[in-house]
Amino acid sequence: MQGKDYLKNIVAPVKLRRNGRKRDLTEFMSLPALLLFCTFFVYPLLKGVQMSLTDWDGMGEATFVGLANFTRFFQDSRAMGDIRTTLIFAAGSAILLNLIGLLYALLMEKPFHGRSLTRVIIYLPAIISPLIMGYIWYFLLQPGRGFLYHAMEQLGTSFQLGSWMSNYPTTMMVLIFVNVWQYAGMTMIIYLAGLQNIPTELREAAMIDGAAPWQRFTGVTLPLLLPAIRINVVTNIIGSLSVFDVIMSLTEGGPGYATESLSIYIMRMCYGSRTGYSTAVAMILFFIILIPVLISMRLTREKD
Amino acid sequence: MKKLLAFVLALALCLAAFTAVAETKVNFFTGKIETIDLLNEIIGEFNAANPGIVVEQEYQNDASSIIKVKFASGEVPDVMTTYEQEFVDQGKYLDLSDMSDWWNRLIPSMRASCTDLKTGNQYRVCTNMTMAGFFYNKEIYAALGLTPATTWDEFVANLTVIKTQMPDVTPWFIFGKEAWHLGHLIEFIPHGYLKQTLGTLECKTAMLNNDSAKLNFGAADGCMAVFAQNLLDLQANGLINEDVLTATSDNCVEAFVTGKAAMFSNGMWALSGILEANPDMADKIGFAPYPAYMPDSKPVVLCAEDSGYSISATSENVDAAKAFLTYLFSAENQKKYSETLGSPSAFTDVDANWAPAAFAAEVKSVLNSAVNIGFTNEKPAGFSGDDAGRMVQDLLAGTYDAQSFAKAYEKAWNEGF
Amino acid sequence: MKENKVFKAMRILVLALICVMCIIPFYVLLVLSLNAPSRVFYEGNMFVPTFAFANYADAWGKSRVGLAMLNSGVITFGTLGLTILLGGMAGYAIARRSTTYNKLVFSLLIGCMMIPGIINTVPLYTLMRQINAINTLWGMILVCSTLSMPSAVFIFTTFVRALPRELDEAAEMDGCTGFNVFWRIIFPVLKPATASFVILNGFGVWNNYAQAVFFLQSRDKQNIPQALSVFFQQFGGAKWHLMSATAVIAIVPVVIIFLLFQRQFIEGLTEGAVKG
Fold it and tell me: Are C193 and C268 in contact (CB under 8 A)?
């Protein structure tokens, strides 16, 4: 039994082991990784935090402005719209990714001929560069000109996506769909691994007890799947709240600023000579990510 | 342990190999995709002829963003094609005013366009002129007996004739997925009106000082509101393409060369793409000015400096950089450059075949008949041309009416300062 | 547990549909890449290409995707090597010496996974310039390793923690140094965790664009996404056949590597990653 409590640790990072407190040089074998990380991440990060309290435009002198950048953010209607877009996208993506990923995993659980190939095919979209993916999807979905439009015409069906980009709900739906399409395989793989680690005896015992399929699912499978649920929910929340590529390649945040996400906003502010302000927004985004992550960790914590 | 030692050694070797440097390196940063290959050729010749100097070209899609990070961190290329007013104000560029060998060969009006209004110095040399207006399909115009419009009413009448006589043809193709294109419409039409009535220079000064009495963007009958209303009317009457918000410039080129679009607005840089997509278009492309759309306005055409080169004020290789530019600016190289770029040279001694002869002649006659306006870099740092374009997207998506668009534009402009 | 035949058939059918959905974009890309340059994609039967294989030769010659692949390969290989070594060591230390210091290290790394990278852009660029790391593959390797480190430490820590202590304790008793215990005893059994790490992070490094834009500027150092994006710009629009042929060329090695490692990857996940 290797890697037994791989996932417990996402909640309680380091559990004390009675015999794990020995102090010797081995303890400091984490030092090289820490040094690398501090040099190329923590140090620039601290500088960035310092910048968020100034009005630096990226070139001239920086003046300390305290928390002015933060208050300005909450008064900006474009920024508030971006928060809405980001939250809608993230909620839609995280929920659908988990439901669909779990559904795929349940369908794939029992062995069948060609299972390994199917697994590869479903995972395939996740390994392709978002840049290429963006070009293909726009080519497929472009209203009135894309591949889908002409294909539907050739096949003689009347189904059309219409001008999905001129209508906010459909635009968001398309964005979420493409994101789910790309990453459902990744979610599925983790659920699949989780399912395979549930001892068959437990489920068989429940069956002998006469539990209905739904009861078996909620009573036995789901609780034992908690570690996989946690890893999927947390990574999907982080990924979809900081969404950039999918939106940039399909709508560029448009029309206007309708589908602009916070990450795109930060990027545009950073290059629009509002460097100090953009770092402040990046810190706000950090908390927007942190809160749901902490909540979902607590909700999926196992009872020891 | 041995493996680790070998690993550390290998790492150290790599480090040592990468830190060895010898020659004068001139970093050349460009955002001009059209000239990458030609410049590599020219750079190769220059490097071969000048031992001790190595020019390196760096191209970036998003050059104007990347250069900001470079300036912010202090790593600045020696030579660059990106030029922005805020960098001028910060003293980031080397003063090139005394490079008389270059200036003596440049068309005087182009030298004026290269001049910074605040200091009166030149911080860049523009090798080309570019023009922007309407590209139209001469065949369609001839078949319907149309002539290019000079007033907005004529313009709308032309579009209407095209729509009724040729229902499959998009009268005016706007590729609004690309924010820069819509930003250019603002720059050429409402800003164009200001430049025409105030004069390009005075307009630039008014923009620099945010002189709201002169700019007056928010006025209910001002240039911005009328422009917005005109655009909304065209959209409502189906005189522009239905997919204006999702169409790309590639779609536009395709529609134009297949005869499915009668006209579009763009600059000379679009020419090479059209001819490449369909060489038969060479004698079918016409060029027309932006029609007069305000009570007191005249037709305008953009005639501006293009392809500017600057040297960093902090460059340690100024002499090598100047030597490289002198080589690049030679009449022989500029002929190739102008033909690759598809726009006329700004140097008086360069005689290039930059476009099919008939087209070049028509451009020339438009320049003579319409008011020539310049391009304004003097915009607020926090409100770029792309930002303006995204506001037009909102307008076309139905977020604004003409009045509220003008008000919102004025607000965004002021906040950008 | 026996499954109803009808039920099974339906399950297979649904899975087949899902696979079709996953494949369509790739199929379209393939069709486009094999269309003759003059063909308008929706004329004739749009699902069957005209098999213009010359597109591939043309794309290979005009783009710089070959060199870019080499660069991406070096970066990915270097990053994975460095992260596996340092991350593995850290994972071992954190799992076996759960002191306050190591707890802090772990929390710091995991906490930073949630911080949007752009906040670092300007300071990191300044740092990279100071150490002459701009435009170098080793600089890019260091940056990519830093970004992958939290995930590596997380995977290795949890994996080592689940290994029986007897494995390394005996060696420690014999007086082996910490590094020797790790290198000789722990590292060889980390294979499944390593496979998971490689698959979950390797493609991200291969496809990296956000950092490459800043740190790999010269044409000779460009990686795959940069080469593609330049090529797409240069030969935009009308030349879909070239763009898609280049994209296919860039995708093929990724798919091959994935196919080669996928079995170990799945095993790694099942054995290491998601056990309760």
Answer: yes
